[in-house]
Design goal:
With 537 residues, the chain is α/β, with parallel strands linked by helices. The chain has 2 domains: 243 residues, no CATH class; 232 residues, Carbon-nitrogen hydrolase (Nitrilase/N-carbamoyl-D-aminoacid amidohydrolase). 44% of the residues lie in helices and 14% in strands. The strands form 2 sheets. The protein has a 6-stranded mixed β-sheet. Strands 6-7-8-9-10-11 form a 6-stranded mixed β-sheet, with helices on one face. Helix 7 crosses helix 9 and helix 7 crosses helix 16. The longest helix is centred in the first third of the chain and has 32 residues.
Length: 537
């Protein structure tokens, strides 16, 4: 018990409990600025890196379980996986995600030992480095990174146009570290002891960077509000609310199309673009000429191009067929203006990794029509707005499908390719009535801010809506309702620092973490690697 005092376990668990409340549905974003304090107080009393690792893993498992609990709904309700096995798989996933917090915690203790007074300045760099690693390792799962908790705090997150979501995560961690150290400095004073030296450098740096972030964000929003954006489009998004259980039922095809037709007709002639969700057609569009004509008729009656999701069939060099998860852009005259094929597929949702060898016994967790393959890369589509539009030229836009929108670099490459606004189409029905649709929608806010481009989002069961180039949610639909939303969104020919250069900040944080780690491994000969001075609490 001396090595594992209950107090340290409770402190680590407290951080794990607090973190899920920072994200949707709870939306207590301001809590993120203090949620890591209990863990850091525990780490200050940890005598070894191994102990810090286990404390961090506990905090990470608890927080990831709270954030990712929707995985059970997806697997059990829609993947038909038995409930007990679903919980087991979720715990394996959360244990994996918890490892990143465990590595962070061990690193914090190590950095403090390497550079006793200033090592904690590298703590936010380590957190960002691990978030970047999580974005790409094993195909990547950057779901609900810490910065996403601030998607409603527009007066802070505009720095994402330079630093990405990782920059906001950096600020939050820095503030937590500074407040934890300030608390540790004050406690001896309250107990009548002489306190250690005030960590004024850390506290001052944190306050200055948060203040600068607020000043930059506020000035950007104010200057944008004064700017008159003359170029705009009227976009309509359709939310049909098709039950996942009947989505691919052939007997339900006609009813599905009638619902799309009715909702699309409700726009009248006032939109420049109509957007349907991912896999909107319950058939392969290119293989169904009768249904093709129905879609052309709908686009013609709307007098606007129609963007819709549908599977596509292609053949490899050996003439074996494979599927693509595609988005088609159809003109009102019936001409196919372009197609985008999803690049980043959902493992275990759209395909099974290593199915031919190791995981041959598994089936996809989400019901559909088969396994998919990845598309060739980013494509920017274009169309000519209606004659009534304020824009007389062709307009370019990028499309991301479902899961892809959580990958910042994938989206910013479309902005770099000339997109003037962005669209995401998704089918979040398999999330059920969980926090996942809200978490998914929140991440779109950051893609808008990072590239300063407006987003239109069409989701089968919700949340559908619109986000302006600075992260304001213009409109958002409720879950599990039919909806036909339309809004005027700005069209901009602009590229932010982030659009042009990507995650240079995050890679810089990784470089700093690696250099400090190399210093610890090779530059401290003869030192006891795990011996650190515990700070009394």
């Amino acid at each position: 018990m001396s090595q594992w005092p209950v107090r340290l376990i409770l402190l680590a668990a407290a951080t794990g409990i607090l973190l899920p409340y920072c994200f949707p549905k709870y939306d207590l974003g301001l809590l993120a600025w203090v949620a890591l304090i209990p863990l850091h107080i525990a780490l200050a009393s940890s005598s070894r890196r191994s102990q810090a690792f286990w404390l961090g893993w506990l905090a990470g498992i608890v927080s990831s379980t709270g954030i990712m609990s929707w995985v059970v709904t997806a697997m059990n309700t829609y993947g038909k996986v038995p409930l007990v096995i679903s919980y087991g798989i979720m715990l394996l996933l959360t244990a994996y995600l918890g490892l990143f917090v465990a590595l962070y915690s061990a690193g914090v203790v190590w950095f403090r030992m390497l550079v006793p007074r200033y090592g904690l300045f590298a703590a936010p760099c380590l957190w960002v480095a691990l978030e970047l690693l999580r974005t790409y390792l094993f195909t990547g799962l950057p779901w609900s990174l810490l910065g996403y908790s601030q998607y409603r705090q527009l007066d802070v997150i505009q720095i994402a146009d330079h630093l990405g979501v990782y920059g906001v995560s950096f600020l939050i961690v820095l503030a937590n570290v500074a407040l934890a150290e300030l608390y540790l400095w004050l406690m001896p004073l309250f107990r009548g002891f002489r306190p250690a030296r005030l960590p004024w450098e850390l506290v001052t740096t944190s306050a200055m960077l948060v203040g600068l972030s607020w000043a930059y964000s506020t000035s950007l929003i104010v200057s944008e509000g004064m700017e008159q954006l003359k170029a705009s489009l009227r976009v309509g998004v359709v939310q049909p609310n098709i039950d996942q259980a009947v989505k691919w039922d052939q007997a339900y095809r006609d009813e599905t199309l009638r619902r799309y037709d009715r909702l699309t007709e409700s726009f009248g002639y006032g939109v420049d673009l109509v957007v349907w969700p991912e896999a909107a057609t319950p058939f392969i569009y290119e293989r169904e000429p009768v249904y093709q004509l129905q879609l052309v008729s709908m686009a013609s009656r709307a007098s606007a191009p129609l963007l819709f999701g549908s599977p596509a069939v292609r053949f490899d060099a050996e003439r074996k067929p494979f599927l693509l998860n595609s988005a088609y852009l159809l003109s009102p005259q019936g001409q196919l203006l372009g197609r985008y094929d999803k690049q980043h597929l959902v493992p275990f949702g759209e395909y099974i990794p290593l199915k031919s060898s190791l995981l041959f016994f598994l089936d996809k967790l989400v019901e559909g029509i088969g396994d998919f393959q990845a598309g060739p890369g980013p494509i920017v589509l274009s169309f000519q707005p209606s004659a009534d539009s304020s824009i007389s030229r062709s307009v370019k836009f990028g499309v991301v499908i479902c899961y892809e929108v959580i990958f910042p670099d994938l989206v910013r490459r479309m902005a770099l390719g000339g997109a003037e606004f962005l669209v995401t189409i998704t089918n979040d029905a398999w999330f059920g009535d969980s926090s996942a649709p809200f978490q998914h929608f929140a991440m779109v806010v950051f893609r808008s801010v990072e590239n300063h481009l407006a987003f239109a989002r069409a989701a089968n069961t919700g949340i559908s809506g619109f986000i302006d180039p600075f992260g304001r949610i213009i409109e958002a639909s409720p879950l599990f309702t039919e909806a036909a939303l339309q809004a005027t969104i700005p069209v901009r020919q602009t590229q932010t620092f982030y659009s042009r250069h990507g995650d240079v900040f995050a890679y810089g944080c990784m470089l700093i973490s690696l250099l400090l780690s190399l210093y610890g491994l090779f530059g401290t000969k003869g030192a006891e690697p795990d011996a650190i001075a515990a700070t009394p609490v």
